[in-house]
Amino acid sequence: MLNTDWIIPASTKEEDALATRRALDLTFGWFLKPLVYGHYPVNMIGILKHHLLKGNLHNRFVIGPTAVTSWLNVYPPGIKEILVYIKEQYKKPIEDSIADSKRVNYYIQYLYHLQQAIKEGFTSGYSVTFGLYHVDMKDGLKRYPKDPSGWFKNFLRST
């Protein structure tokens, strides 16, 4: 699974557009371009060969309001923008074949090791909750729909 953030320029200045492109290449293209084209983004190789240990991501700003945790921000247009970006930049479908035993094995192994971590005392995964239902940990794991669940249910019915 490839994870990325959508990044937009701080202004309409060309330097901000170039900085956005570098940031996308660093956080997204650095991983996807070798998979699709067999090489890293050229601008990243040029930048990182001299500054690999001197890089600094502290000058970033976030898009959208903070969600339930400080590291997650909400920017709904980002899903459309990242998919259009993938189509324009990589011009190849990002789907794998339907018969994908390697991915099935990945999920089996991933969930097995997640279970092992939980058995060894990892419980902080329960401190921040996501999803459409609240799970009451003190009352038999009863589930209560959050407001967005009704909207989502109606949305799915109408599509």
From TrEMBL:
One GO biological process term is:
carbohydrate metabolic process
Q: Which UniProt keywords apply?
A: Glycosidase, Hydrolase
Question: Where on the tree of life does the source sit, at the highest rank?
Answer: Eukaryota
By its UniProt entry, which InterPro entries does this protein fall under? GH, Glyco_hydro_1
Q: What is a GO molecular function of this protein?
A: beta-glucosidase activity
**Pfam families in the cross-refs:** Glyco_hydro_1
UniProt similarity note: Belongs to the glycosyl hydrolase 1 family.
Protein name as it appears in the record: Beta-glucosidase
Question: What species is given as this protein's source?
Answer: Papaver atlanticum
The organism that produces this protein has a lineage beginning with: Eukaryota, Viridiplantae, Streptophyta, Embryophyta, Tracheophyta
